[in-house]
Each structure stands twice: as structure tokens, then as C-alpha cells.
Design brief:
The complex is a heterotrimer of chains A (323), B (284) and C (402). With 323 residues, chain A is an all-alpha fold. Chain A has a single domain, classed as Orthogonal Bundle (ABC transporter involved in vitamin B12 uptake, BtuC), CATH 1.10.3470. Chain A has 15 helices and no strands. Chain A is globular. Chain B contains 11 helices and 2 strands. In chain B, strand 1 and strand 2 form a beta hairpin. The mean pLDDT of chain B is 89. Chain C is of the alpha/beta class. Chain C is 48% helix and 19% strand. Chain C has a 7-stranded mixed beta sheet, with helices on both faces. The N terminus of chain C is likely disordered. Classes of the chains: A mainly alpha (323), B mainly alpha (284), C alpha/beta (402). Chains in contact: A-B, A-C, B-C. Chains A and B meet through helix 5, helix 11 and helix 13 of A and helix 4, helix 9 and helix 11 of B. Chain C: One of its GO terms (biological process) is amino acid transport. Chain C: This is Branched-chain amino acid ABC transporter substrate-binding protein.
Chain lengths: 323, 284, 402
């Protein structure tokens, strides 16, 4: 394994990102958002990269998480830590259901099924406006108060987000390194063989969904607290599409790849949208270029550069060994 | 009585949905390619028709010319871009076509502005026909007839021509095609262009009904997906039946429970995939 | 080790590059410049409104610069039409740029969220968005609204029609299912009940709907005298196009309660609109000194007539600037004190900021679209047939500002 893909190094890079963002971004909100999306893209990567499942349903869990935060923080005054746990559990539960139904189909049909579910949940949220606020969304979602008053300054909330990010990122790294993670990769690479050996393939895929959904819902709750609203847009299929794009741009060969993908997407979108209102045109071009020239994403590029500059000898040795 | 009217209206709507979806279905059948840019080709067809009519061209000329331009654009895109990525996983098909869709949508806004506009129905098709209590626009009646004729022509092309036979053979196995010695690359381009051209034609045909606006492609794409999934990917008959089914359900729901119309359609789509993964008419 | 440091350095370089537009903008915004944030959708589905809103705000800023001899600058903040993005941009503008005056918000959802944010962040916000809650149940001290809410829009658009058409007994409504639509529908029901008229049917539809033939078929079956369309923008255009193609114009009176303005007529075309009634917040032919001035300025700068998006943004920006000048600062409380109760020469004649709920009291208009042959110029799509003011009493709005 490349040095930069080792779990400890990956965690180090995540830590570095957390420390570096405040140096380069003036907006604490943008920085917090980058970390939230980094977390969610990593959760999406758990499905895409490690399990080989292209899910168009990540927005469902994201929206659910923000609704849980909106409903229980504003209407019932449930403490923040409990709300976060509730969001996580509900995210896991719904993801289990969606995952369990979706993995019965493969390839394009799987993608279409997750797409149908994402539309389904959007219209559910839209129709049951008593619960979700419909198009207005839920407002006045408070930020957590850990004894020192509510975190009105975006940077103090950033610390809260950063700690969450590091803990969950470490847990996901742990999951990918465990037997569970290795089995997922085995399933991804050759499902039939994994099934033949006797792995309960479906259970593993569903579990991957549950973890992904739990983390995504946690991120949704964080986002609602950050912005102060839980809007309908969070559960739209556009959100799912954006999460997928971030993940694919980052690459799927390591978890930190998704952090790079999310950061690149968020920061470039912020800069470009200030320069040119039609910036989505450039995004469209960028997506095409990624598919043509950067199939392993930005992380793949970094890997390549790394090998070129620092592990030349190793790769040479490897090639010679292959001969 | 209202229900009967709604069914009639739904059939009219369904024929449009068929035209919208059939190209997507054929492309998927032959190329195993999920085309998220299908809605953008529909959008482009509508705007080109609008533009040509604004320049004083007759609608009858503008609509086919617009569809032809869309087909050429799509064919060139296929030849230069898409054929490089067929072998990659679906992830990249989706990435590229989402990229193309965004590109076309923003280009439309740059070229024609964000506001949209109306296309007048051609002379002679303004006004309505009245049967008792049932009122129906002449132009919508025309679209039903037009789409029905087109459906027959398409059916004939698929069943009776060499290209059709190849497409059908290819849907079953691309290797078949290669074994038979066909130039698969060229056939792929032609089929992709034709599928996109049909979407462009649908856009032009719909423009007098709905006008044009830059985000019309997004909604069209989701309808096309629903129709193709329910009918069975790659199935011509499936697209026809599912198109009409979706149209009728949508129209009936307008009377029964309008708030739940979309909800019903997506529940239907999800249950079809879970229970009949190949759709109603897909090949097993 | 060397490797990691190199990596760090290159990341740092990229970061600096990315952050620089923000830094530059910050530097140029320093000094004694009065800054107004214009949070509107510049990209995304409502980009057209955002573009005009930005243009209108610039006119207000230039006019104020000349009038007060102090530089006034507007800062476009692209909300993308999404509440979350809108809130982030407003929070950032407050914390990074020190902007305390905001005029914008096209969609109800983004405006509600931004109003809350302005209140929390020590700023003030004025909008033209439609949802009643903005100056109703969700009102706050920092959120002001120029446009007439649903109650006034309905009363001013359908009462004149009821008076003019005594035979219009049966009404049918098409309503988008969210609070804005519900507000319009409720107001309609109240007026119809008071007048002893019948609502023979209503069709709800979702915000993503583009196909209205099913609803129109429903409407036709109930044989109404009036079709009242309660949706907005692109959906309203779709409904109208399809209603006209179903020949409804010949069979009943068609009324749009909340037209989006001149740009809607341009997109639909005069032939299609002819004979249809439109309720409107603003029309460029309104006879008032302030409007005459705005029309003059807009024609001079952009060579076109102002539409609702442009005019609404202009007057909102102007109100914020005038209040800040009057208060002598952009401090939240001082600007609020200056705005509350302010009476001024507005676009629709004399306008007044009601202090109890921060709602501007102004005229609402009923337009009737002309035949193409009767148009005096390319923008002369409609004549104003009535105008007036209807507002709920403060006690009934649900707003509790104290």
C-alpha cells in the first residue's frame, strides 16, 4: 500500500485539513461546510469505493438528519447530543431499509432504484409539510450550547464540526481496515466468489448502507445547526447528485480522497460563482474531463505524483519483480 | 364523465412521454449506456425550434430541422467523447452525461437568456375541438396523431429494416454484432444520434404546449427515467405502454388526489424495480 | 519528511490562490463606503429575477451616491435560490465584510431564512418575497417587506373583478401546495364567502409540476365563470399557456392573482395574454413622481423599462440606504428605528412602513392585458384598471413584535 494511503497517514491528512482550513478560508461557515461535506462524501465513498455501490440516495439521509435536528431541537428542546444520536440512528435505520431494497438489483437498476427512492422521499417531505415545514423548511435551528453560550461565531462551531469530523473519519477508517472492510472490498471485486466462499453478501452491503446513512444523517444534522434552517433542498435529488460528484471527483481509492473532492468542489464553487454566474458550465466541462483523464479522481492524481517523486524506487522494484 | 376525460387527456400526455423516453430506452438497449443528458437534448430541441420560429421559419420546417441539429450535435458528441468511455463503469457514464447536461443547460441560458418564451401553435391548429363537455386543443390532438404515426414508423424501422435488426440483435449482445461483421462504432453513433434526435423532436413538439424555459430538461429527464424503468430498459413496446400508463395515472390523479400524483408515480417506479426488475416488457 | 513539507507548501499555495478573490474584495470595500448586500438568486432556476434585482439595486446605489455625496456600493450575493446558501452568504457578509444592510430574497424560503439570520447577526433585511409569515407568524424586528402579502393581493385583484362582472358566480382555483399558495387560497375563500359566491373547485399541485392539462380538464368539467390562477413565475406561465390552448379564454374569465411582472408578459407574448387579468405589485406606467424617476433612470442606464424584480430591488435598496443615512449609522437598532413608521414618496405613491409588523403599506394593482394592436409601445402590454391598499390588521397577522 502506498504510504499516503495508510490509515495513520490518512488520519494525519484529515487532521492537517482541519488545522489548515482556518488558515486559508476567511469564512468559518464555508470551512465548516467543507468538513461536513467531506464527511458525507467519505460516507458515500464507503459505498462507491469500498462496496461498488453507486447510490443516488445519499440526499435522503442528509435531509433526514437535518429534519431530525430541526424538529427535535426547536419543537421538543431535546439536548443536542441526544438529537445527534437520534439523527444517526434514524439515518442508519432508513439507510438499512433503502439499502436492503436497493441491493436486490444490480448495476443500472440499482442506480435507478436509489434515484426513485430519492424522489420518493423528496415528495414525502414535500407532502407532509406539518412535520417538515414543506417548502419553507424548518427555521430557528439552534447551534449547540456547551456551557459557554451558543456558538454564534462560526469558528467556534467549526471546532465542534471538526471534532465530529475527526472522530467519525477515524471510525470509518477503522471500519475499512477491519475484517468487515476487507470483506466489502472482496465483495466489490468479485461478488460471486465472495458469495461462494460463504460471505453473507447482502448483509454486508446492507451494513455498508447503514453506516453510510448514519454518518450522512449526522452530517445533515450538523448542517442544519450550522445554517439555522432545515430546508427542503437538503433532501432534493440535487443534493444526492452533488454528494456523488464530490465523491467521484475526489476518487475512490482512499477515504481521504473524498475530503479532497468535497473541499475542491465547495471552494471552487464558492470562488467561481462569485466570478461568473454561469459557472455550472465550467463544472459540466470539469466533470467530462474527470471522466476522460482523471478516472481515479484528484486523489489518483496525487497518488501518481507521489509515486513519481517519492516512491520511484519502490515502483521500479515492483515492476522488476513483476518481470 | 370527468374520469373518462382524464383518461383521454392522459393518453395524449402519454404519447408525448413515449416520444420523450423511447430514445433513452433504445440507447440503453443497444449501448448499455445511461444517458443523463437526454433531458438536455430535449431542451436543446425545444430552444432550436423556438429560435427558428422566432426567425420567421415555419414551425413545420423548424421542428424537424431542430431535431436534426440535435441529432448531429449528439452524434458528434458520441463520436468524439462517449465512445471513449463505454467500457468504463456506469459511474463515468453518469458523470460525463451529467456534465454534458449542465453544459448544454448553461449554454442555453447564455444564448437565449434565463427567461424562456412561447412558441405559437402553427396556423390551423390553434383553437379547440369540442365534443359535448370535452374540450381538447387541436394542437394536442395533432401531437397524438403525429406521435402515433411516428411510433408506427419507428416500429417498422426497428422490426423491418437492417439497422433495426442490428439494433435488436445488439440489444441482446454486442458481440453478436461484431461477429456478424458490422461496423459497431458507426452503428453506435447513428443510434445515439437518433435517440437524442427523438428527444429533440419531443422538445420541438412540446414547445407550443409548454413554451421553452432553461430548466425544462430536468423534469423531462425524470419522466423519461420513470417511463423507461417501468416499461423495461431497451424495450420499444415498454416505452409506449409505460408512457401511456404514466400519462393516464398522472392525469387521473389530477382528479383523485393531485397532491399525491408524483408520489404515486415514484412508488410505482420503485415497486416495479423491486418486483419486476426488467420492467413490464424488458427482456429477461 | 521533505516530501511532506513540499506537499504542505503546495497546498498552502493553492489555498492562498483560492482565498485571494475574497481578500481583494475586502481591501477594495474598506473606507467610508456604505455597503448594501443584495442576496438574490443569480445562478439556478430563478436567475432571471436575480439579474434584474441586481440591476435595480445598482440604480438605487448610484442615485444615493449622487444624492448624499457618500459612496454607496451594492454587493451581489448569489443565493442560488437555496436557503442554506443564502444564509451562508448573509452570515459571511455580516462577519467578513461588516455589511449590515441587506435588500433581496426572491423566494419565500430563502427570504424567511435570511430574515432570521439578519436578526441574529445584528443586521437588517428587506425583501419582496411573498409568504405571509415574513411579516406574520415568523416576523422579527430586523425583517421588513415591501411587497403586499397574500391577503392584499387577493383583495385587490378579485374584488374589482367581482364588482365589474356581476355574473361571475362560479370560481375555480389552481393552487401550488405550499404556504404562499395556501395563503392566497384562504384569502380567496374568505372574499368569495363574504360576497356569496361559490368556489366550485380547486386543484393543488406540487412545486415541480409543469403539466396542467389534468387540472384544466377538471376545471372545465365544473363549468366555472372565473379561473383564478394562484401560482407564480414559470409555473404560472405554463398554466396560462395550457389554459389558453384549451380555449379557456373564450369560455371564462382568467385571473392571475400574483403576476411576476413585465418579464412574464414578454415571455408569454401579447396575443396569449390578451384579455387576461393580472394582479401586480408594480407596473412601469404607475403615475407617481418616484416611479417616473425610476423609469427615467432605468431607461438611461439599461435602455429598457423597469420590471417588478428591478423595481422591487431598487426600492428595497433605496429604503435601506435612506434609513441608514437618516440614522447616521448602519447599526441594527438605529436603522430599525429610522425605518419603522417611515412615510415616503414610493413607487406606488405614498408608502408607509407599518411599525407593528415591519410591513410596507402600499398599493396593489389589477392589470388587464391589451390586444397587440392596441399596444402603444413594445412594453405596453396591459392597462392598470384599479389599484388600492388592503392589509390585515396587525392583530390578525400573527406577528408579535414588541
Amino acid at each position: 500500500m502506498l504510504l499516503i494511503n495508510r490509515p495513520l497517514v490518512q488520519f494525519g491528512l484529515a487532521l492537517l485539513t482541519v488545522l489548515a482550513l482556518p488558515l486559508f478560508l476567511r469564512s468559518g461557515i464555508l470551512a465548516s461546510e467543507v468538513l461536513i461535506y467531506a464527511l458525507i462524501a467519505a460516507a458515500c465513498n464507503l459505498l462507491l469505493g469500498y462496496t461498488g455501490l453507486l447510490s443516488f440516495g445519499q440526499g435522503i439521509f442528509f435531509g433526514l438528519g437535518s429534519y431530525v435536528a430541526g424538529i427535535f431541537l426547536t419543537r421538543y428542546g431535546v439536548p443536542v447530543w441526544m438529537v445527534l444520536i437520534m439523527a444517526t440512528l434514524l439515518g442508519a435505520a432508513v439507510a438499512t431499509l433503502v439499502g436492503w431494497l436497493s441491493i436486490r438489483r444490480q448495476g443500472v437498476y440499482f442506480v435507478m432504484l436509489t434515484l426513485a427512492f430519492s424522489q420518493l422521499f423528496y415528495f414525502l417531505a414535500y407532502t407532509f409539510s406539518d412535520l417538515t415545514g414543506g417548502d419553507n423548511g424548518l427555521m430557528d435551528v439552534p447551534r449547540p450550547d456547551l456551557g459557554a453560550g451558543p456558538m454564534n461565531n462560526a469558528w467556534s462551531f467549526y471546532i465542534f464540526v471538526a471534532v465530529s469530523f475527526l472522530v467519525l473519519f477515524a471510525l470509518m477508517l477503522q471500519a475499512t481496515q477491519s475484517t468487515f472492510g476487507r470483506t466489502l472490498i472482496a465483495v466489490r471485486d468479485n461478488e460471486e466468489r465472495a458469495a461462494a466462499i460463504g460471505f453473507p453478501v447482502k448483509a454486508f452491503k446492507t451494513a455498508a448502507f447503514a453506516i453510510s446513512g448514519a454518518v450522512t444523517a449526522y452530517g445533515g444534522a450538523l448542517k442544519a445547526m450550522l445554517i439555522g434552517v432545515a430546508p427542503l433542498a437538503n433532501i432534493e435529488h440535487h443534493t444526492s447528485e452533488m454528494i456523488l460528484i464530490m465523491t467521484i471527483i475526489g476518487g475512490s481509492t482512499s477515504l481521504f480522497a473524498s475530503v479532497i473532492g468535497a473541499a475542491a468542489y465547495m471552494i471552487l464553487a464558492d470562488v467561481l460563482s462569485q466570478i461568473w454566474p454561469r459557472w455550472l458550465l465550467l463544472l459540466g466541462l470539469a466533470l467530462v474531463c474527470v471522466a476522460l483523464f482523471l478516472q481515479k479522481g484528484l486523489w489518483g492524481l496525487i497518488e501518481k505524483l507521489w509515486v513519481m517523486f517519492f516512491q520511484k524506487d519502490q515502483s521500479l522494484e515492483k515492476k522488476e519483480a513483476e518481470h | 364523465m370527468t374520469y373518462l376525460f382524464q383518461v383521454l387527456n392522459g393518453i395524449g400526455l402519454g404519447m408525448l412521454y413515449f416520444l420523450l423516453a423511447v430514445g433513452l430506452s433504445i440507447i440503453f438497449g443497444l449501448l448499455q449506456f445511461v444517458n443523463f443528458a437526454h433531458g438536455a437534448f430535449y431542451l436543446l430541441g425545444a430552444y432550436l425550434t423556438y429560435d427558428l420560429v422566432e426567425r420567421g421559419m415555419s414551425f413545420w420546417l423548424a421542428m424537424p430541422i431542430a431535431a436534426l441539429i440535435v441529432a448531429v450535435v449528439a452524434g458528434v458528441t458520441e463520436a468524439l467523447l462517449l465512445r471513449r468511455i463505454y467500457k468504463l463503469p456506469h459511474t463515468f457514464h453518469i458523470l460525463v452525461t451529467v456534465g454534458i447536461a449542465l453544459f448544454i443547460q448553461e449554454l442555453v441560458i447564455i444564448l437565449w437568456g434565463p427567461l424562456g418564451g412561447s412558441v405559437a401553435a402553427p396556423d390551423g391548429l390553434n383553437g379547440v375541438v369540442i365534443w359535448g363537455d370535452f374540450i381538447y386543443p387541436k394542437y394536442r390532438l395533432f401531437t397524438i396523431a403525429f406521435t402515433a404515426v411516428l411510433a408506427l414508423v419507428l416500429y417498422w424501422a426497428l422490426e423491418r429494416t437492417r439497422l433495426g435488426a442490428i439494433v435488436r440483435a445488439g440489444s441482446e449482445s454486442t458481440e453478436n454484432m461484431a461477429l456478424l461483421g458490422y461496423d459497431t462504432l458507426r452503428i453506435n453513433t447513428v443510434v445515439f444520434a437518433a435517440g437524442a434526435g427523438l428527444a429533440g423532436l419531443a422538445g420541438g413538439l412540446v414547445s407550443p404546449i409548454r413554451g421553452v424555459e432553461p430548466f425544462m430538461g430536468v423534469e423531462a429527464l425524470s419522466i423519461a427515467f420513470v417511463v423507461v424503468v417501468i416499461g423495461g430498459m431497451g424495450s420499444y413496446v415498454g416505452a409506449l405502454v409505460a408512457g401511456i400508463l404514466v400519462g393516464v395515472v398522472q392525469s387521473l390523479m389530477a382528479t383523485i388526489w393531485p397532491e399525491g400524483a408524483r408520489l404515486m408515480i415514484y412508488i410505482g417506479m420503485a415497486s416495479i424495480i423491486v418486483m419486476m426488475p426488467r420492467g413490464l416488457f424488458g427482456r429477461a | 519528511m521533505i516530501g511532506r513539507r513540499k506537499l504542505l507548501l503546495s497546498t498552502a499555495g493553492a489555498g492562498l490562490f483560492l482565498a485571494s478573490p475574497g481578500l481583494l474584495r475586502h481591501a477594495s470595500a474598506a473606507g467610508d463606503v456604505l455597503k448594501v448586500g443584495i442576496p438574490v438568486p443569480i445562478s439556478g432556476g430563478n436567475a432571471a429575477n436575480g439579474k434584474y434585482a441586481s440591476m435595480g439595486a445598482i440604480i438605487a446605489a448610484e442615485e444615493a451616491t449622487a444624492k448624499y455625496g457618500r459612496e454607496v456600493k451594492t454587493f451581489d450575493l448569489d443565493t442560488e435560490g437555496k436557503p442554506a446558501t443564502a444564509v451562508r452568504k448573509v452570515q459571511d457578509a455580516i462577519q467578513q465584510e461588516g455589511i449590515q444592510l441587506f435588500a433581496g430574497g426572491i423566494l419565500s424560503s430563502e427570504s424567511l431564512a435570511m430574515g432570521k439570520e439578519a436578526d441574529k447577526g445584528g443586521a437588517n433585511f428587506i425583501t419582496t418575497a411573498g409568504a405571509d409569515e415574513i411579516t406574520g407568524t415568523e416576523c422579527n424586528a430586523a425583517t421588513f417587506r415591501w411587497s403586499v402579502p397574500t391577503f392584499g393581493a387577493i383583495n385587490q385583484s378579485i374584488r374589482p373583478i367581482i364588482d365589474a362582472l356581476p355574473n361571475a358566480k362560479r370560481w375555480y382555483t389552481i393552487t401550488p401546495q405550499y404556504v404562499f399558495g395556501e395563503g392566497l387560497l384562504q384569502a380567496t375563500k374568505d372574499v368569495l364567502e363574504e360576497k356569496g359566491l361559490e368556489l366550485v373547485g380547486n386543484s393543488y399541485h406540487s412545486l415541480t409540476e409543469k403539466e396542467f392539462s389534468g387540472y384544466l380538464t377538471n376545471a372545465i368539467a365544473t363549468k366555472p365563470d372565473v379561473l383564478l390562477i394562484l401560482n407564480f413565475g414559470a409555473q404560472c406561465a405554463d398554466t396560462l399557456r395550457q389554459a389558453v390552448s384549451f380555449g379557456l379564454k373564450e369560455r371564462m374569465t382568467i385571473v392571475v392573482a400574483w403576476a411576476s411582472g413585465l418579464e412574464q408578459f414578454e415571455a408569454l407574448g401579447a396575443d396569449l395574454c390578451e384579455g387576461i387579468y393580472f394582479g401586480a405589485q408594480y407596473w412601469h406606467t404607475i403615475d407617481s413622481p418616484a416611479n417616473a424617476e425610476l423609469v427615467k433612470l432605468t431607461r438611461a442606464k439599461y435602455n429598457e423599462n423597469p420590471n417588478y424584480s428591478l423595481a422591487g430591488s431598487y426600492i428595497c435598496t433605496k429604503l435601506m440606504i435612506d434609513a441608514a443615512m437618516k440614522a447616521g449609522s448602519t447599526d441594527q437598532k438605529a436603522v430599525q428605528a429610522a425605518l419603522k413608521g417611515m412615510t415616503y414618496a414610493g413607487l406606488t405613491g405614498e408608502e408607509h412602513v407599518r411599525p407593528e409588523d415591519n410591513q410596507v403599506i402600499k398599493n396593489y394593482y389589477l392589470l388587464k392585458a391589451r390586444a397587440k394592436s392596441a399596444m402603444a409601445n413594445k412594453d405596453d402590454f396591459a392597462e392598470v384598471i384599479s389599484s388600492g391598499q388592503s392589509f390585515l390588521e396587525v392583530a390578525k397577522t400573527g406577528c408579535k413584535l414588541s
